[in-house]
């Protein structure tokens, strides 16, 4: 197929989910863009599970859920008004897709000024009132958990909390990134890696003028984890999503726009409910850290210096194009600035600046982003960052610390201490266990009582 040199999204009126299948340890999901005056553009995405070592076929319901979850990467290229599902689905699966588009593409729609992209007309050609497949294979919550590892402080806290509680989790990632590999090495645990290959037409279309933007990657990776755990006979799939993921960045056209929607309790609840509709235990999936604010996670991470030189949360280290990846922290983006300031009251200054190879708090050029992170200007940046109150609290603490008070940004904000105190007073407390199963209560209780 020859793609157009200039891509016109308006030429495409239908986005179709056309099928999915599995063979040789791989799952393919297929999609198409169609329009009355345009040649159809077809896409195939490949998920490779061969590293699991499993020889059985993936659960058909979970494969279908993966096809539904992953479609957003292709739908967003043109965001047509109609989405057609051309394989049999239950109504709850149609509802799942509607929620993933509406919540998971909020930032994309906002950045491209496409509010209608969040509410396309969904057409399912074959809707059934029952689960299509036979009952799922047996599952045991007592089996080893499968834990998502992202290379940052949150998953490290989960990993070490589980180890301290006597569990021996298996770690997993989607695609290969050096910070993740380094974290796995330090953990000393077994790990598996699934691979996700986007259809290369995506890059060509983006260069030709397709719409582009943020997608709910965690939703896709969550279903990948569920498939892997099922193939390997493992227990719960555990993520490390925390309180701040539930807080939207802004409200636009009546939509809550949340960069972290697929890390939020809204998505976690949606996925658990969908598993229950399939006749599976909802305890197959949960976040261990949902009860904790970022500042509490940072305090627990500070107890694990063995990871200090390998952990990275900077998104520039995880670029899809390997040639664009940075080896360490960039020290400039909102994610770097947030992680630095939240750790600054908890890790020695010399050690922290060694980790980052820079002191972002001593560069006045970062003042604008830090004002946004603290809730003083605009809205929270579109990054996986914590609540305003936690950043404000950190700045107030640093203003009283001789090691930090002279840094440019801390000094500049000291005149706003009363305002920062006010913002910090709204910091969320540690909350209840939520979706954490009773089987993991001792781990949760130890985290909370840290």
TrEMBL record:
What Enzyme Commission number(s) apply to this enzyme?
5.1.1.23
Q: List residues of the MurL C-terminal domain.
A: 310-415
Catalytic reaction(s) noted: UDP-N-acetyl-alpha-D-muramoyl-L-alanyl-L-glutamate + ATP + H2O = UDP-N-acetyl-alpha-D-muramoyl-L-alanyl-D-glutamate + AMP + diphosphate + H(+)
Keyword check for Cell cycle:
yes
User: What are the residue boundaries of the MurL N-terminal domain, all occurrences included?
Assistant: 15-288
Keyword Cell wall biogenesis/degradation in the entry? The reply is yes
Keywords tagged on the record: Cell cycle, Cell division, Cell shape, Cell wall biogenesis/degradation, Isomerase, Peptidoglycan synthesis
Signal sequence range: none
Tell me the domain of life.
Bacteria
Pathway per its UniProt entry is: Cell wall biogenesis; peptidoglycan biosynthesis
Q: Record's InterPro entries?
A: MurL, MurL_C, MurL_N
Q: What class of enzyme is it?
A: isomerase
Identify its protein family: Belongs to the MurL family.
Role played: Cell wall formation. Catalyzes epimerization of the terminal L-glutamate in UDP-N-acetyl-alpha-D-muramoyl-L-alanyl-L-glutamate.
> Which protein are we looking at?
UDP-N-acetyl-alpha-D-muramoyl-L-alanyl-L-glutamate epimerase
Q: Which organism is it from?
A: Gordonia alkaliphila
Whichever gene encodes this chain, its name is: murL
């Amino acid at each position: 197929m020859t793609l157009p040199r200039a891509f016109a999204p308006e030429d495409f009126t239908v986005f179709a989910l056309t099928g999915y299948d599995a063979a040789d340890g791989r799952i393919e999901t297929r999609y198409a863009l169609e329009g009355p005056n345009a040649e159809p553009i077809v896409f195939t995405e490949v998920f490779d599970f061969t590293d699991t070592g499993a020889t059985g076929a993936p659960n058909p319901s979970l494969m279908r859920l993966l096809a539904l979850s992953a479609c957003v990467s292709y739908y967003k290229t043109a965001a047509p008004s109609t989405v057609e599902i051309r394989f049999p689905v239950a109504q709850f699966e149609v509802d799942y897709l509607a929620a993933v588009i509406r919540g998971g593409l909020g930032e994309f729609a906002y950045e491209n000024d496409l509010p209608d992209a969040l509410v396309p007309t969904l057409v399912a050609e074959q809707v059934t009132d029952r689960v299509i497949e036979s009952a799922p294979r047996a599952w045991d919550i007592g089996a080893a958990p499968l834990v998502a590892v992202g290379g940052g402080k949150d998953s490290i806290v989960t990993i070490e909390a589980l180890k301290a509680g006597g569990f021996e989790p298996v770690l997993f990632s989607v695609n290969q990134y050096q910070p993740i590999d380094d974290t796995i090495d330090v953990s000393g645990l077994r790990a598996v890696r699934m691979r996700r290959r986007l259809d290369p037409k995506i890059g060509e279309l983006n260069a030709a003028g397709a719409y582009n933007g943020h997608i709910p990657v965690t939703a896709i990776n969550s279903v990948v984890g569920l498939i892997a755990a099922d193939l390997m006979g493992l227990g719960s799939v555990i993520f490390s999503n925390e309180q701040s993921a539930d807080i939207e960045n802004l409200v636009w056209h009546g939509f809550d726009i949340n960069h972290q929607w697929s890390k939020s309790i809204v998505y976690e609840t949606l996925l658990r409910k969908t598993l229950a509709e399939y006749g599976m235990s909802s305890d197959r999936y949960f976040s261990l850290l949902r009860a904790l604010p970022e500042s509490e996670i940072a305090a627990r991470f500070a107890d694990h210096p063995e990871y200090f030189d390998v952990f990275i949360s900077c998104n520039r280290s995880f670029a899809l194009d390997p040639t664009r990846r940075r080896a360490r922290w960039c020290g400039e983006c909102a994610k770097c600035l947030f992680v630095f300031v939240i750790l600054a009251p908890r890790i020695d200054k010399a050690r922290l600046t060694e980790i980052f190879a820079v002191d972002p708090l001593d560069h006045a050029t970062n003042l604008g982003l830090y004002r946004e992170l603290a809730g003083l200007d605009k809205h929270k940046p579109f990054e996986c960052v914590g609540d305003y109150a936690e950043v404000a609290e950190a700045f107030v603490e640093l203003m009283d610390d001789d090691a930090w008070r002279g840094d440019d940004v801390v000094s500049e904000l000291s005149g706003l201490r009363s305002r920062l105190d006010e913002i910090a007073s709204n910091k969320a407390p540690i909350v209840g266990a939520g979706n954490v199963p009773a089987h993991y209560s001792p781990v949760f209780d130890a985290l909370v009582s840290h």
